[in-house]
Amino acid sequence: MNVIRIFLMLGLLFSLPSWAISLEDAKAQGMIGEQPNGYIGAVKGNTRAAGLIKEINAKREEAYQRIATKRGISIEQVAKLAGKKLIDKASPNEYIRLPNGEWVLKKQAR
């Protein structure tokens, strides 16, 4: 039940329209991607989206902290759960970062 609430709260955070279009554009252009730690990162050293990355990651960190405090778990646990969910939800041909640090294009489901 707690996990469901976590993902509902994360869903609200990630649906904010003020930056969703820019986030999607940056992902589509291969500038940024999802990481296992729950935060977005610059793909292969791309710095063009640095401001967007900083803004989104700050909002994610705030949300993760609220959830962690409410649930009595660490922010790292929340971020890791979110990272897995966000990587799973990434569209085909968007970059995702593997646990070993390598950036790869997500493949289509077969």
Key structural traits:
110 residues, alpha+beta, four-stranded mixed beta sheet, 4 helices, 4 strands, 56% helix, 11% strand, signal
In short:
This protein is 56% helix and 11% strand. The chain has 110 residues and is α+β, with helices and mostly antiparallel strands.
Q: Count the strands?
A: 4
For the biggest β-sheet, the strand order reads 2-1-3-4
Relative helix content: 55-70%
Number of structural domains: 1
Average pLDDT, rounded to a whole number, is 87
Low-confidence stretches: 16-20
Number of helices: 4
Range of strand content: 5-15%
> What is the rounded Rg?
14 Å
Q: Given the helix and strand composition, which structural class is it?
A: alpha+beta
Protein name: DUF1318 domain-containing protein
Organism: Oleiphilus messinensis
Keywords: Signal
Pfam families: DUF1318
Explain this structure to me?
This protein is of the alpha+beta class and 110 residues long. The chain has one domain (23-106). The protein has helices at residues 2-14, 17-28, 50-71, 75-89; strands at 32-34, 40-42, 95-97, 103-105. Helix 1 runs antiparallel to helix 3 and helix 3 crosses helix 4. The longest helix has 22 residues, at 50-71. Residues 1-20 form the signal peptide.
How do the helices and strands line up, and which of them pair or pack?
Blueprint: H1 2-14, H2 17-28, E1 32-34, E2 40-42, H3 50-71, H4 75-89, E3 95-97, E4 103-105
Parallel strand pairs: 1-3
Antiparallel strand pairs: 1-2, 3-4
